[in-house]
Amino acid sequence: MSAAKRFAQRITQVNGVASFVLTRSDGLVVVHNLADPDDLATTVTLAGANALAIRKTIGFSQFKYLFLPHRHGEHLLIFSLDKYFLGVQVRDDCDSAALIEEISGYLQSLLSQGRPD
Fold it and tell me: Do 86 and 20 meet the contact criterion of CB atoms below 8 Å apart?
């Protein structure tokens, strides 16, 4: 099984994940579970890149995630992972804090192994 497929399998196992897309920082889609990932991939890449720029301008130490709530359903979480961005559409009925903790822990484990899976 490829690293991208292992990554997809692990992310989709997280309770509350409705859909996801993993993009490189240049916008190339690496893996996803959507019928058409283009709109979400563009949003995730632009928002992630701008969040990194804001972090650098203001002088914050790091950008871990961006949470964009939606009043009519699924929320959007964007995580930074080395040269990648992970966008997760979160079901509105889940515990967002637990989901953030689980995904952040998984991404941190990938970085500590020296590879974003």
Answer: yes
Burial-class residue 112 by CB neighbours within 10 Å (0-12, 13-18, 19+): exposed
pTM higher than 0.85 for the full model?
yes
Q: Which residues pair with 35 in a beta bridge?
A: none
- CATH label, 3-112, candidates 3.40.190.10, 2.30.110.10, 3.40.50.720, 3.30.450.30: 3.30.450.30
Report how far apart the first and last C-alpha atoms of the chain are (Å, whole number): 12
CA dist 96 and 93 (Å) reads 9
pLDDT digit string (tens) for the chain, length 117 residues? 788 899 999 999 999 999 999 999 999 999 999 999 999 999 999 999 999 999 999 988 888 899 998 877 789 999 999 899 999 999 988 999 999 999 999 999 988 887 654
Q: Where are the domains of the chain?
A: 3-112
- The angle subtended at Cα 41 by Cα 39 and Cα 45, nearest 5°, is 120
Tokens linked to 13: 């196992």
